[in-house]
Request: fold
Amino acid sequence: MLDHLEGPQEAYAYAWNRHQEMLSDVRQRLTEIEAEREQASSDQAREQLADEYFRLMVDVRARHRVWIVEHGEDLPEIREWTWS
Reply:
């Protein structure tokens, strides 16, 4: 593989350069993996917030339904609500 090289110094320089290229590739991939991990964490946090919001909305709708059945009108906090 290194037959075309003229001597040990050239072989060393070749190996060193190749090593630096591989190291650079590894560093780049590690940076990409870290960014992917951060994105996944961010996505998980958003997903968790969305799940909490959805559960809250389901709870409010259920409470609203019960209130209407019992009182025949909207919940007090939304009774006077209008589109602005």
Notes: The mean pLDDT is 86. The radius of gyration is 32 Å.
